Amino acid sequence: MAVITMNINYFPTLTLVAFISLLTGCNEGDKLTLNERSIIYCSEGPPETFNPQLSISGTTTDATSKQLYNSLIVYKGKNNTLAPSLAKSWHVTGDGKKITFYLRQDVSFHQTSYFTPSRLFNADDVLFSFNRILDKQHSFHYVSGGQYPFFESIKFDDLVERVEKINDFTVRFILKQSDSSFLANLATDYAIILSEEYGSKLAANYSNHDLDILPIGTGPFKLKDYRVGSFIRFYRHDDYWQEKAKIEQLVYDISPSKTSRLTKFLAKECDVSSYPIAHKKITDRKDLTLESITSLNVGYFGFNTKRKPFDNKLVRQAVSLAINKQALIETVYRDQAERAKSILPENSWAYDSSIAEIAYDPERAKELLTVAGYPQGFTMDLWAMPLQRAYNPNAVTMAKLIQTDLKKIGVKVNIISYEWTAFLRRLSQGEHQSFLLGWTADNPDPDNFFTPMLSCSATDKGSNHTFWCNEEYDQLLKQALKTNNISERKNYYSKAMAIINEQIPLLPIAHSKRFQARDIHVEGEILEYFGGINFSQVSKKPAKSIINQVIPQKIEALLPQDYTDDEIITEKVKN
Amino acid sequence: MLTFTLRRLSLFIFTMFALTLLSFSLSFLFPGDTVINHSGQINASATELAELNKSYRMDQNIVIQYGAYLTHILNGDFGLSAVNQSSISNDILKLLPATIELSLVALLIAMLVGIPLGFIAAIYHNKVPDSAILSLAMLGYSIPVFWLGLLAILFFSIGLGWLPSSGQISLLFEIDFVTGIQFIDILLSDSPYKWQAFRDASAHIILPACVIAVAPATIFIRLSRASMIDVLASSYIRAARAKGLNFRQIIFRHAIRNALIQIIRHVGLQFANLVTIAMVTEVIFSWPGIGRWLIESIYQRDYSAIQSGLLVLSCFIFMIHILIDFIYAGLNPLARGNKYGS
Amino acid sequence: MAREKVYLEEVFPSPFMQLWGIFRKTPVAMVGFCCFIFLVVLAIFAPIIAPYNPIDGNLDMILVPPAWHEDGNVSYLLGTDDLGRDMLSRLMYGTSLTFGLSFIVVVFSLVIGVVIGSISALTTGFKSSFLNHCLDVVLSIPSLLLAIIIVAILGPGISNTVWAVAIVFIPQFIHITRYAVKEEFRKDYVLASRLDGANNFRILYYSVFPNIVERLMSQATLAQSAAILDIATLGFLGLGAQIPLPEWGSILANGLERFYIAPWTVYLPGLAILFAVVATNLVGEGIRHALKLRKDN
């Protein structure tokens, strides 16, 4: 008995001493180097897959496209010009039906614990990547569900006749008809190149499924480790064909909760945070910065036009009229967004300002409800997306506001939310009555709004969760794609906009900015103008040099931007 | 001691029976098909389903079904998670050690802080330090743990920037999974950053462990105070005093030892309490433990995970309970007496 | 003791009144008791006193800080939340949910627990042993964990939470009643009434209950402070009261999102919970203290 008591007496002192010496006896030198060589990114959700061909969710492309893969061509700069990537040049024939790509010959695939490439990138890989989508007989077509939402929404298989290998480093796409958005679509985050060699190896091992789980690409980073729903660890791809990434390790810390993401960022547990809330808190701190990019996106309130009561156009109109969009923008977006007048943002060249938006008019809404046969109103389900995206930073709050708005015209709203993957799955099964979601453009072509969101082809498996299908509208989009004449195209799109405004399969709410916060030690562009993020250019400054010299200059350089942001936000908070 | 062991054993068997029976019946109570709730295979094909029905003996009577279910559990097969189709027993094996680690550290802190404070309060019985400590204990006992956790993060992580707010260790460090107890894994790993990782892990555990420790510490204060007051009032202390030992000697040589034994008895019950608090705290500090996992499973209506998680967690708590009972009985022969069936 | 009565008449105050006499003299306990009464009143009259509706927000008044803040507004004394709902009104209504429901829950489990406990105290042998084993299993599982288990089975929601917490506390009351009744039954006065021919029920009702009521009350205060915390914790975890009910725990969880720009939406409900639990615990401590003093006398 005595022995035990003795132990109890001595134990605390010993542990305490050990503990304190551990905590204080710092030798920070080594840790800094590890820290300097790595970036931790607090992301807003887990990727559904590691292959962006299979998903249109921005969270998935953020985690995969620009990190793990390359596409044939890319968008560069603010002018959105197409630039070479894996294809060093390309050629389009006069009729626009044949597009030839000349490929780079020095591109190597990732070498990982699960795959060692024996050859460089060549035409076979391009064929493999696109035939997987196009060819239903392809041994990988039905792996992971056989659904390629983006490609289905742009009717890729109707457009592309075949892909030909001319020689090892030349491929040619043969189109059925000319399409002015084809190149733009190939430059998106979805049209990435997989490794054919890896595919054959997996097929030989009967583990085809791994193609989309254990990814192999040509991008600046390779996958090291993924713990489901917790974190993704990338290592640098040392044989990257472009300038290799400056950091050696990239970790995505998956933190779906907005508050805990901000907490981690403020406590410096991550270097970069996606979609931060409480902007003022960040701009107040001198060691953190907030950046934003105006991205082409739209947040909307969609109706399932295949289910009662929203199969009735009048009901959709009535509900749309009853919603006070301005209040939503002030509350949910904290005024960091423009009110959406149509699904197309006003800065797109195809936007037609002559088409009137659906204004807030609850009186008229009530009348329409009566005409539609619901004088007493009705009860509806509203599905709010569970996570935060630029186009909708807080769908649940928005849903609550809509609930209040609709109560005024006698419509009772039940708010429903599922975990993200389940949410998307159930949406595509059409279990919903109405929903809050949005769309972020992958390229600046206006077709990227009209076709994926509302065309008939996007209905079944793709991205049109309203299940609205209008022949005339689809026809207009098709005609718009056939021509290369800008003013003609604009004309078609403006007619399409008018149809949407009249039918209201969805109510556009806002076009927002995408925000990101980072530690000032982190340098280099991360946010890309379209869609995703890219860490290949990012580096971290050594902390010491910053303390010694860089901070004063850095702060001065940041002040003007900081203050403007600060003022706007402070004012809104006071309101 | 034999009767004591037998009694405990019978209690243990009874409890395990009750818990597995509860867990088994949950499959019937939860919505959906029973066999799917058992196995979690939501996407099972017709043949797989037939196979499952066979292995869970669904065509037989309920007793045999229960037997088949028990066999599955004893083989470590808890089925698959309905949400992401990962093996639940694997998930639990990975997450439970993290919870154990956190709870043990918290228990240690609670005892190290609570017991001495309780003794001090007892020694100064009915004086200022006593009432100060008691008021503090009352406050600690009343404060909602999730709120305390938030305040701690706000103050120590963000305000002062001293301690990290989430997770077990910074994601920069790659520590291979061996035992699941982070500190042991770090020591076993061959990472060049071993000692930094160790320091980082220690910094990560302080805040959640302290938050968890607050409520149990107040209980330890009360317990140790009460037992010390009893001891100080006992005749052998009076005898010691009469022998001419000074106060210090009495306290350190006699009183503390005897008071401690009484406290050990309650450690088991407090550990259970502590694990529950840890579940909530894990959510706030994003600790990758079984509590957070279980609560997320409840959100997502992942019935097979809820069922197995509850079973494992309650078994674990009960085993600790019995273990502490044995330790107490080992230390204190008086406790081996009759307790049940009176 | 000075007796001013003409006739020598021994009037003993009932045990309960004795207790109240001692209780009244402890200032801290009385403060707690007043707070407790205040909360009870608030819980009952919240709909009348509260200045605003707790669910409908005023969208022009979003995230107004409390009145003492420089940007505050006196008509919203404790500020508003992200939907422009008045925090004061929400906290008032929350009193009837968190505090009021916990009170009802405890009374409910107390009644059930006492009935079962008294019956079990009168049984012996195998049945008693079986019950003991069951109680031991249930009591070794912490109340919050058990509540989480039950909510997991029933599904989230305020009514399910109430049921869960009620079920959780019944075993505690069974245990304490059983123990207390057994102890009382060994005493001589029970034997006396038994010799008078009283049956078990009569003894229980007239002799035993008046003597154990304080102990039950003391246990009830413990249970209530735990119940408040459990209901609030479940609400915080999103397993209890659902949006938009103004339950304290869920108000706090709701405010988390705006923690950094509107910290009062987190501080205030936390303080409310703390206040309610401390008040309850003070009352409990007062009763226990009084019990001890009465015993010592």
TrEMBL record, chain B:
CDD domains: TM_PBP2 (cd06261). The chain crosses the membrane at residues 9-30, 102-124, 136-163, 201-221, 271-290, 310-331. Residues 96-328 form the ABC transmembrane type-1 domain. The lineage of its organism: Bacteria, Pseudomonadati, Pseudomonadota, Gammaproteobacteria, Alteromonadales. It is a multi-pass membrane protein. It comes from Colwellia echini. This is ABC transporter permease subunit. InterPro entries: BPD_transp_1_N, MetI-like, MetI-like_sf. Belongs to the binding-protein-dependent transport system permease family. OppBC subfamily. The keyword Cell inner membrane applies. It comes from the Bacteria. It is found in: Cell inner membrane; Cell membrane. Keywords: Cell inner membrane, Cell membrane, Membrane, Transmembrane, Transmembrane helix, Transport. Pfam families: BPD_transp_1, BPD_transp_1_N.
From TrEMBL, chain C:
Residues 95-284 form the ABC transmembrane type-1 domain. The chain crosses the membrane at residues 28-50, 97-122, 134-155, 161-181, 225-244, 264-284. It is a multi-pass membrane protein. This is ABC transporter permease subunit. It comes from Colwellia echini. PANTHER family: OLIGOPEPTIDE TRANSPORT SYSTEM PERMEASE PROTEIN APPC (PTHR43386), PUTRESCINE EXPORT SYSTEM PERMEASE PROTEIN SAPC (PTHR43386:SF5). It holds the Pfam family OppC_N. InterPro entries: BP-dependent_transpt_permease (IPR050366), MetI-like (IPR000515), MetI-like_sf (IPR035906), OppC_N (IPR025966). PROSITE patterns: ABC_TM1. Belongs to the binding-protein-dependent transport system permease family. OppBC subfamily. The lineage of its organism: Bacteria, Pseudomonadati, Pseudomonadota, Gammaproteobacteria, Alteromonadales. CDD domains: TM_PBP2. It is found in: Cell inner membrane; Cell membrane. Keywords: Cell inner membrane, Cell membrane, Membrane, Transmembrane, Transmembrane helix, Transport.
